[in-house]
Specification:
This protein has 90 residues and is mostly helical. It has helices at residues 8-14, 18-31, 40-55, 67-84. It is flat, with a radius of gyration of 19 Å.
Length: 90
């Protein structure tokens, strides 16, 4: 994070897994009463419903003003990674 030039507040927010763990917990509690999982589409629908329930508990990202800096750094990194990757042959 520090090499990308983001602020301390944004780095702390993004290195913490509490928001993700909270969302997973809410998704589990939303889908816990399903007795018969029919197919993959049903699973996706219930996960989406759980994420929508979790959306209300999300808080603002601290240091969000530095997000453009992070996006630019990730784009540069992705560009350099694709240029350095060897070409695959079939």
């Amino acid at each position: 994070m520090r090499r990308m030039g983001v602020s301390d507040a944004l780095a702390r927010t993004l290195t913490n897994t509490n928001a993700i763990e909270s969302m997973i917990s809410i998704c589990r509690s939303t889908a816990r009463n399903v007795k018969r999982w029919r197919d993959g589409k049903m699973v996706k629908r219930w996960v989406a419903a759980g994420m929508l329930n979790a959306e209300g508990s999300f808080r603002r990202v601290k240091g969000c003003k530095d997000m453009p800096v992070l996006v630019d750094a990730l784009a540069r990194h992705a560009g350099s990674a694709t240029e350095a990757a060897p070409a695959r042959t079939a």
